[in-house]
Amino acid sequence: MTPLGTEAQPLRVAIVGSGPAGFYVAEKLQKEEDLSIEIDMYDRLPTPFGLVRFGVAPDHEKIKNVTRVFDKISAKPNFRFFGNVDVGAHVSLAELQQYYHQICFATGAQTDRRMGIPGEDLDRSHAATEFVAWYNSHPDYRDCEFDLSSEVERVAVVGVGNVAVDVARMLCRTREELASTDIADHALEAISGSGIKEVYMLGRRGPVQAAFTNPEVKELGEMPGADIEVLLEEVTLDALSQAKLDEGQDKATLKKLEILQGFAGRDDQGKRKKLTIRFLVSPVELIGDEDGKVVAMRIVKNELYESEDGSLRPGATDRYEELPVQLVFRSVGYHGVPLADLPFDERRGIVPNEKGRVIDCDTDVRVEGVYVSGWIKRGPTGVIGTNKPDAGETVAAMLEDVAAGAVLDPLHPEPSSVEKLIAERRPEYVSLEDWRRINDLEVSRGKDQGRPRVKFTSVGEMLADL
Ligand code: NAP
User: Fold this and answer.
1) 256 C-alpha vs ligand 1 centroid, how far in Å?
2) Cα–ligand 1 centroid distance for 166 (angstroms)
3) Do 284 and 209 belong together in one domain?
4) Does residue 186 sit in the same domain as residue 258?
5) Hey, which end of the chain has fewer CB within 10 Å, N or C?
6) Are 206 and 234 contacting, i.e. CB atoms less than 8 angstroms apart?
7) Tens-digit pLDDT profile for residues 140-149
8) Beta bridge partner(s), residue 230
9) What angle do CA 350, 356, 361 make, to 5 degrees?
10) CATH number of the domain where residue 315 is located
11) 334-335 and 111-112: which strand pairing?
12) Whole-number mean pLDDT of the chain?
């Protein structure tokens, strides 16, 4: 029998999801120069790049330069893109198993976590992830409505991770700052025409435990249109946090504290907006008016205690406050969603796996030939680059399985067969060439306005000129 991974019998791999996790899996596979590997990448949207396109904030253009790496990966021979194809809806896993030796899911974490407090479903209370997708022109979110009218002057962003930082910063940006980015036009108009005066970011633990990274929080103190406020008593460490810090002597955390304590000593410069970062407070209720719209948030002051695993957790005191906010974004983390025909760990929001090999949690038996990488494998943590070593681990498992012969035995391994199937099931699928055309059109729409691109906001628009 011809060995797998040779010119005569290439290893056929499907990667489902075209965000950083999927692309880094492709890159690692392409580096295996001794193996002949053919990669087909699927995405349910016509456009690739996942959260680089729909998550990274418009004013962080440089971060998006990583797409140049992805362009090189997709330009390699034996790489194909099947966009606008929903695996699970247009084609099933069982069908893909007839065409590939290995299938790797890199679909990310597609929903958000909730706060679980009364009033969370009132009008003007939203998931930050929806706001992010809306200002980034995600076609599924373009019709979302966020009240940015003059009635809304104060906004609370719950959580102190990097998504919360993005949302708070975007709300504080001026029209001039946003106008040169690839922000959706609908969001540019709404945010710059809003009556927002104050934005609060709320951390339930202290500054040492804040999830945001240093460059991101530092940038909050450098905004032309917004002053920054931090309460000195909330960034003065409690004994437990101080002891942890002394124990660890972690340079990044010391720097974070220095940045935040620096903010606490600042004078107000009379800018149009103000961003206040609060620590050791938890929302306990959103209060609505007679129309069911948020008009305030009740928060409780927390004190930290040491939990059994040694981490410091927030414990509520009996001290409450009411924040007069009219718009709330919960930014308390993403959560994975189950994928058709695959096992799922509901609590962690991931597909159960061992080093990327999918495991059925009921039987503890592995699902042969099926792998995961990225947030659907490890949960929604880390920055874009974290997906690189993660992909390395998954690909190492895939290659070990190739060497051991533990792969699927597809009936139709030739590339033309699956292309025929997809063309039948989803005639409006988007190839790599099609995506390049969409990209060129978006870039040229942006050129006249001095913007990196003006994105299409609906699938219909994306497909119109193909
Ligand atoms: P995250 O980093 O996990 O932060 C979640 C935040 O929500 C934490 O502050 C957490 O506090 C808080 N939280 C959770 N449950 C809460 C509750 N019930 N009440 C109040 N607060 C609660 O998640 P993320 O901000 O969604 O970001 C996801 C990942 O994407 C992160 O790894 C992030 O670094 C990355 N990202 C990076 C960038 C960038 O590099 N510029 C931009 C965006 C996102 P506790 O710590 O107390 O749980």
Assistant:
1) 16
2) 11
3) yes
4) yes
5) N
6) yes
7) 999 999 999 9
8) 277
9) 50
10) 3.50.50.60
11) antiparallel
12) 97
Amino acid at 146: F
Asked whether the predicted pLDDT for residue 265 surpasses 90, the reply is: no
Instruction: Give the CA distances from residue 291 to residues 118, 145, 295, 328, 356, in Å, rounded to whole numbers and listed in that order.
Output: 16, 16, 10, 16, 48
Q: Do 378 and 327 share a domain, yes or no?
A: no
Ligand 1 centroid, distance to 161 Cα (angstroms): 3
Around ligand 1, the residues with Cβ closer than 6 Å are: 115, 158-164, 166, 203-205, 209, 211, 216, 282, 331-334, 380-383
Q: Ligand 1, closest atom to CA 164?
A: 25
The three-state DSSP-derived secondary structure of 145-203 is: CCCCCCCCCEEEEECCCHHHHHHHHHHHCCHHHHHCCCCCHHHHHHHHCCCCCEEEEEC
Sequence-distant (6+) residues with CB within 8 A of 218 are: 259
Predicted structure pTM score: 0.97
25, two tokens:
């899996």
Q: What is the pLDDT of residues 82-97, one digit of tens each?
A: 999 999 999 999 999 9
Structure tokens at 141: 């979110």
How far, in Å, CA of 74 to CA of 99, rounded?
20
Q: Which domain holds residue 373?
A: 11-110+336-430
DSSP class of residue 293 equals B
In the numeric block, the tokens 């499907």 are attached to: 14
Which one of 214, 332, 335 would you pick to mutate in the ligand 1 pocket, going by the greatest count of ligand atoms within 8 A of its CB? 332
Is pLDDT of 249 > 80?
no
Ligand 1 atom at minimal distance to the Cα of residue 216: 41
Q: Specify if 403 maps to a domain.
A: yes
Tokens standing for residue 84:
């606008």
Nearest CA to ligand 1 atom 29: 381
Q: Indicate if 92 and 119 belong to the same structural domain.
A: no
CA 414 – CA 437 distance, rounded (Å): 27
Ligand 1 atom with the shortest distance to the CA of 113:
15
The closest alpha carbon to 45, from 66, 72, 16, belongs to: 16
Separation of 431 CA from ligand 1 center, angstroms?
34
Residues 145 and 276 in one domain: yes
Name residues whose C-beta falls within 8 Å of residue 243's C-beta, 6 or more positions apart in sequence.
Answer: none
Nearest-atom number in ligand 1 for the CA of 382 is 32
